[in-house]
Amino acid sequence: MITLIEVLNFRCLRYIKQPLGPFHVLIGPNASGKTTFLDVISFLGSLVSEGLDAAVGERTKNFQDMVWMRNRNSLELAIEARIPSDRRAQLGKQPYDSVRYEVKVGNEHGETEILAEKVLLKKQRQFLIKKGLCFLIILSRRKQF
């Protein structure tokens, strides 16, 4: 299960760090970033399975279209997920129960490339999620000055 999404300079999302539970409802006006928030997961899936060129090419011909306000050279994405118990068993006695994947994609040297990438194993803090609890993510448009 995905437990956190963190975004910097991806399309209309300047910065967002959103913990996730088992069920969410996205609420917000048109063009507030609801679809873009969901596209973070899709983009990362394409990046890992098909490669950077395919992930970017599915969305645009110009990488700058994917960068907040089109005035940055890079974007950063991170996702955290719980490691399923059958996979945790493969780690032996290690205390890790979640994984974090971070990637920085940019166009700093004339072509779109992965500028930084890392995978971290984490020991997640324990917390209780009540059954049937629904989380709301409310996105709003904010004026930039």
TrEMBL record:
InterPro entries named in the record: AAA_GajA/Old/RecF-like, P-loop_NTPase
Occurrences of domain Endonuclease GajA/Old nuclease/RecF-like AAA (ranges): 1-45
Taxonomy, superkingdom: Bacteria
Leader sequence residues: none
Annotated protein name in UniProt: DNA replication and repair protein RecF
Organism: Neomoorella stamsii
